[in-house]
Amino acid sequence: MTSHIAPVELAKAYRLINHGPTVLVSASHGGVANVMAAAWACALDFAPPKVTVVLDKSTRTRALVEASGRFVLQVPTVRQLALTQAVGNTSLADDADKLRRCGVTLFQQDAEPTPLVAGCAAWLACRLVPEPHNQQAYDLFIGEVEAAWADTRVFANGHWRFEEAGPEWRSLHHVAGGHYYAIGAPLSAQDATSPPSPSA
Amino acid sequence: MTSHIAPVELAKAYRLINHGPTVLVSASHGGVANVMAAAWACALDFAPPKVTVVLDKSTRTRALVEASGRFVLQVPTVRQLALTQAVGNTSLADDADKLRRCGVTLFQQDAEPTPLVAGCAAWLACRLVPEPHNQQAYDLFIGEVEAAWADTRVFANGHWRFEEAGPEWRSLHHVAGGHYYAIGAPLSAQDATSPPSPSA
User: Where does the Flavin reductase like domain start and stop, copy by copy (chains A, B) (predicted)?
Assistant: First the structure.
């Protein structure tokens, strides 16, 4: 299962989420692991790479992040649409068997203590940068990316390869209520028409 | 030019950026207006709607946001690819004629004092929520959305209509170095295959 997973250099880790995908957030503490979906995750810095993610106070994942000081953001694919929707709409507090029911398989990678979700396109392992005011007032969490990996079938040599991988590898971009878009066609600004010349 | 622009109710304003598009940030103060591109913008709350955006200390737009206490996030389209790349790679500090050279046309909408960029798919007018520590330590700015509008040809009744609008209306999702993806095909979690049933 993990044979296509390769490290991504930290200087390029921001590229894994720069295009705005909905992500899965995994965390674990004291033998309990959980996974939730988050559309509100974003890059924050290049070096060291940092990210933001919004974690509602009602989520069990948030409590695990606060207790362990760590989380992993991962980029799910079209193949994981039902899984993504399911982990985003059920709580471990209501169903101790949530992850199995949602079809989540966890695995460990390298020295990272937080488990990763199998089948994703990319993973960013983060150390929580404690900012109590942001966490309390805005549910906003900052993480420093300490390691990153990608499945080389869809991200290799620092570049997404959505156009070469099959459509099942496309990232998911949630709008609302279970309505998503897959990422689409590549565009190069170098090929774009120049900005219109305003009349003098 | 503005005949297709309609207000978006604030409760649904988050949907305009929930799918992770690269945005344009406009701001103005003391008779000076500027526009920059930002891939690091994200929803932060539903009600009242809030957003985050990362504004580097080197940008003139940031100074205008700090001085005026306001900014507008807007969602550019495939038709604006060259414009988006251009405003993200030139500075008003180096070229007082930046906006004209980049092909930007500004307009005023309703009572919003900050000018909007013509031709975009959607606009979110924000009041800066001052958080000096975030701004200084992380270049992270929080805004409360006070008004929102969309072009009804691509967003109507609270929903994106990318699949019905022409391909030139798709949002832009920057990866790095002028390489973007357009948003792609719609996916409904209701239609997705159920999560795989793990073997008992």
Answer: 15-166
Residue B21 falls inside a structural domain: yes
Residue B121 identity: A
Which of B53, B47, B94 is closest to B74 using CA atoms?
A: B53
B196 part of a folded domain: no
Residue among B101, B182, B187 whose CB faces A180 most closely: B187
User: What are the tens digits of pLDDT across the range A51-82?
Assistant: 999 999 999 999 999 999 999 999 999 999 99
Q: Which of B179, B190, B191, B194 would you mutate first to test chain A, the one with the most A CBs within 10 A?
A: B179
Which residue of chain B comes nearest to A167, CA vs CA? B185
Check residue B194 and give its pLDDT.
60
> Among residues B122, B145, B146, which one has the least CA distance to residue B50?
B145
Q: Supply the pLDDT for residue B159.
A: 97
> What CATH code is carried by the domain that includes residue B90?
2.30.110.10
Q: Do A175 and B82 touch (CB under 8 A)?
A: no
Asked if residue B120 is part of any domain, the answer here is yes
- Judged by DSSP in three states, A187 sits in strand
The mean predicted confidence, pLDDT, of chain B is 94
Using the predicted structure, report yes or no on whether residue B128 has a pLDDT greater than 60: yes
Q: Do A16 and A5 form a contact (C-beta atoms < 8 A)?
A: no
The alpha carbon of residue B112 is apart from the nearest alpha carbon of chain A, in Å, by 25
The predicted pLDDT at position A192 comes to: 79
Quote the minimal CA–CA distance from A73 to chain B in Å: 15
Q: Is residue B189 part of a domain?
A: no
B106's enclosing H/E stretch is strand B106-107
Contacts across the A-B interface (CB distance below 8 Å): 191
Q: Which of A56, A173, A191 to mutate to test the interface with B (most CBs of B within 10 A)?
A: A173
Q: Which domain holds residue A109?
A: 5-184
pLDDT tens, residue by residue, A19-29: 999 999 999 99
> Between chains, do A103 and B195 touch, taking CB under 8 Å as contact?
yes
In this model, does residue B93 exceed pLDDT 60? yes
CA separation, residue B13 to residues A94, B116, B148, B189, B199 (Å): 30, 16, 6, 22, 42
